[in-house]
Amino acid sequence: MSRDAEIRKGVGGLPFPVRDATPVTEAKPLDQAKVAIITTAGFRPAGSAEVWQPGDVGYQEFSSDVRDMQLSHFSPNFDRVGVAQDLNVVYPIDRLDELAADGVIGSVNHRHFSFMGAQFDLSAILADSGPAVAQQLLADEVDIVLLTPV
Questions:
Q1: pTM for the model
Q2: What is the pLDDT of residues 79-95, one digit of tens each?
Q3: Are 36 and 146 in contact (CB under 8 A)?
């Protein structure tokens, strides 16, 4: 069996959360909206000795001016070259800054968040760390969250 087939077999039957309803709100015009990023790239501050461990459901907060981050998840299944060449591949902060400068979006939030994307059980994120980040984004009056999976 190929490595790809093994991975598909291992994750293919994992449960996926289904919601009964999708909340709907009136959207602000894009040129007035405040935007934040949540990535599943598993970033840590550059130079950090910490690495994301399997099942780590925490998150890392980054100030909007930080560009010195490192991927701290190591897997032979993930090609890190694109991220090493351009952080914006998974964390498009420079593109958001450009959109704000051009008046396309209203502003870029002062902080953004990174989770570890390789999860098999989302229950703790759904019950704890996800709502904690959502509360912070609500407190910041963020209108749009750009989710960047890895």
A1: 0.79
A2: 777 777 888 988 999 99
A3: yes
